[in-house]
Design a protein that fits this description.
about 75% helix, about 0% strand, about 160 residues, elongated
Amino acid sequence: MSYSDPYTTYQPPVYEAPPPSRALARVFSGLLGLVLTPVAFGLLAAGGYRQQVIVMEALTARRDGLGIALTVAGAILLLGVAALGAWSSTGPLLGGVVWGVLPGVVALAMPEWGFDLLNALPHGGLSYGLSSWLFSGALLASGFLLVGTGLAATVARRRIGR
C-alpha cells in the first residue's frame, strides 16, 4: 500500500517590487496640459480667424501663410496635449476641463460671462477667433475630446496593468 506525501513542496514567496510612483508623471502631465492647452486653443482660434477674415474680405481662395502656420501649430500642440495621456491622463483631463469644458459650458449657459471672459483678453485676432470657438460650442467639444483622451488613456493603462 502506498501513501501520499502529506506535505507539499515549500515554495518561498516571490518578492515583487512595488510599482514606481506615478506622482511625478501626473504632476508634469497636469502642468503641461494646463499650459499647452490654452496656447493650442489660442493658436487655433487666431489662425482660424485670420483665414476667415481673408475669405470674407475678398471672397476668394487667397491664402494667409501665417494663419495656416498658426492653425497647424495649434493643432500640433493639441495633439501633444492628447499624447500626454500616454505618460499620465492628468494632462489631457485638466487641460480639457479647465480650458475647454468649463469655459464652453459657462459661455453657452450664461453668454454674458462668456463676453466677460473674452474682455479679459486683448482685443484682436485671438479674442475674435476665440469668440467664434466659444459661442459655437467648438471649445466645449475640444475640451470634451481632451477629457475623452484622458479617460481612454486611464482605461488602457489599467488594462495593461501599469
